[in-house]
Amino acid sequence: MDLNLKNKVALVTASSKGIGKATAELLTKEGCRVVICSSNQANIIEAAREIKHSCGIEPFWGVCDVSNPDDIVEIVKMTKEHFGDIDILVNNCGGPVPGVFDDLDDKNWLDAFDQVLLSVVRLSREVLPGMKMKNWGRIINITSKAVKQPIDNLMLSNSLRSAVTAFSKTLSNDVGKFNITVNNVAPGFTLTSRLYELALVKEKNTGVSHEEVLAEMAFSVPMKRLGSPEEIASMIVYLASEQAGFITGTTIQVDGGAIKSTY
Q1: Interval 16-33: pLDDT, tens
Q2: Is the dihedral of CA 93, 95, 97, 103 positive or negative?
């Protein structure tokens, strides 16, 4: 299927590895002019090298900590100078620190607010004027299955990613008249470094090996396996397409059936 994405300008944040990198790679293969970024320069350079090896095209890259408003302004400015206004924004970020309510102080909450919610607000604010001028745009936020079914020991992620969902729904109502869609993709247990880190935390807290923790996660999924970053990325890229132009204000889980609710 031709997704009609050739020459669209896409910015994918936190894209040095995992779901962000897989998304950037698929968008590149669809003919997008892709910008990737990470807070870690060495990691993003390596990601650009790997995408070039896979696709034959090296994405434009920059250093951006999405918790830093100045970095957000700068990466959008760099993208516009290199390619023009952004057509597709994929908001991704690392997960905030794990913990239950009693583990977390005000700094933890404020850091998570900047990282998870305010990064989406700031990036959306930067790209929307150009999208409105073109009368076309896609904003896709990578959240978590936790927005529909909270995950133990992830108080901050459960709370702030749910806030992203409410923000996105509200924003979609405001910008739909400009042919701009706003959607969320909620991954289930996906084999990324973040999942591995959470398994190590559980190993430390419970004494159960991280291998067993990952096996338990996989067993809890009806499909009896963990997802791959590429499977999540495929949904993200479809939502970026012309064919998905009447899908907005939604949160779509890609979780192997792990969420138990019917809606």
Answers
A1: 999 999 999 999 999 999
A2: positive
Q: What is the pLDDT of residues 84-138, one digit of tens each?
A: 999 999 999 988 999 999 999 999 999 999 999 999 999 999 999 999 999 999 9
What pTM was estimated for this model as a whole? 0.94
Which residues share a beta bridge with 61? 36
Kindly state the tokens that stand for 145.
Answer: 């299955």
The token pair at 194 is 């973040």
Domains of the chain: residue spans and CATH: 9-189+228-254 (3.40.50.720)
Q: Sheet containing 88-91: give its strands across.
A: 60-63, 33-38, 9-12, 88-91, 137-142, 180-187, 251-254
HSE of 93, CA atoms in CB hemisphere, 13 A? 28
